[in-house]
Amino acid sequence: MNKLQQFLKKKNIEISLKRYGIDALGAMAQGLFCSLLIGTIINTAGTQFQIPFLLKPVASIGDVQYTVGGIASAMSGPAMAAAIGYALKCPPLVLFSMISVGFAANALGGAGGPLAVLFVAILAAECGKAVSGETKIDILLTPLVTIGVGIFLSWLIAPPLGKAAMSVGGLIMWATELAPFFMGILVSVIVGMALTLPISSAAICAALGLQGLAGGAAVAGCCAQMVGFAVISFRENRWGGLVSQGIGTSMLQMGNIIRNPRIWIPPTLCSAVTGPIATCIFRLQMNGAPVSSGMGTCGLVGQIGVYTGWIQDIANGAKASITPMDWAGLFLISFLLPAVLSLIFDAICRKLGWIREGDMKL
User: Fold this and answer.
1) Fewest CB atoms within 10 Å of the CB: 81, 139, 265, 309?
2) Which residue, of 111, 130, 164, is where some domain finishes?
3) What is the pLDDT of residues 21-31, one digit of tens each?
């Protein structure tokens, strides 16, 4: 056992929740952002502003034509796997081999590809790291093992993992349609808290394919956390804190939450209110890329995702037009209600002595 531990340490193979559940998951979300999400934004910009270069196919593979945004979106599997490999501190030959692994896992995982990529990429990366540098034919053996393990596992477990992820996501979306009030609260609070925790709410939403009303509730929860913390900590952090948390991440408050968990009450209560408002009153839906459901106001990706969903719905006939009610709902759920409600809940907590001056200083 001691020799195994020494070998794992030498290979930088750390079997832990932090390495796989935080580092790898967070990196996967970044890979998705730099491929699928950016590709969606590019396509939307090209369509809305009628930019010829962005509308014109620039490559053809078989019968499929790809625009600039289409190419970026098509690379989501390799991007996710390479990002995971980077987070796992893979040596170069393993890291570069992850591109093929990601493509296979994402393709065979179907709509639940992101979850398949997460599991397959982790296993393939650790196997590749284990053999890396152990022989004189490293340049052949390391890619062979990494890609071989990755593609075999993609064939073996990616399809059932993808189906399982879609089943869970479909169940959540079905339940939200059936009981929008209670599920609006549940999804909004859970995804919002996941955004503030050192895990990736975006990757979770992507893995589950969270869209529709459930996606709208997730957006509401994430916005409540980001805008909420940005506003209630303004007295301590001023404009820099407002921007870094409001369009950056509320995860910056994790150290303060550990010191005083009660500072988490205002934005979390806010998400419990805005979630059902989003699902029951405004019927806010996220029909853009599922990863956008877990982004909130980070770079305004959540709002861009909702907008791209509107455009797609109009294009396929599911929606006639974007109404003033749509815009009002998006603005209220994303910005105004989180700011106002969080300030109210924060004032109550301060009155009770649960939150003190300086508790949210970054």
Assistant:
1) 139
2) 164
3) 889 988 888 88
